[in-house]
Fold this sequence. Notes:
Elements: H1 16-27, E1 38-43, H2 46-56, E2 66-73, H3 75-79, H4 83-92, H5 96-119, E3 123-127, H6 134-141, E4 147-156, E5 175-178, E6 187-190
Antiparallel strand pairs: 1-2, 2-4, 3-4, 5-6
Helix pairs in contact: 1-5
Amino acid sequence: xxxxxxxxxxxxxxxxxxxxxxxxxxxxxxxxxxxxxxxxxxxxxxxxxxxxxxxxxxxxxxxxxxxxxxxxxxxxxxxxxxxxxxxxxxxxxxxxxxxxxxxxxxxxxxxxxxxxxxxxxxxxxxxxxxxxxxxxxxxxxxxxxxxxxxxxxxxxxxxxxxxxxxxxxxxxxxxxxxxxxxxxxxxxxxxx
Length: 192
């Protein structure tokens, strides 16, 4: 209940045990049909982090204890199964549903990673800015076909204590949707 995004970190790299706690915690996230359609890349190369900082104009991409890049990874489905199953999967990859599933799976894993980092006393921030030049990032990381970088998470020892951002009260949901069993009479109301 004390989550806050940390954007300034002390100059301390994560210890291996911290990474070995965060990544498995991410992998324990719920996954649609157990597809786990994502990959997590640990970006430690200082030159690549500097280049990514230049692209994003975001200092904490370079200055953190560890940078994780979460990717939708549909490549794994093109190499599993027999030849016919692989051909069928390549056709299915053109469906937005498969990509959406990968994005949701990666997002759930990322939230688990942040929670694990915070449980270790670390801070983290999820960043969509890594996609400011997605083609360049794709080249920097030498990603294979069907692997798409989605967002990054900078993790480290906090060097700031920002205020907790206000949230909508939990007693007032943003919207309520009610439907009859037959699907008729769907109503939606918004609370403001």
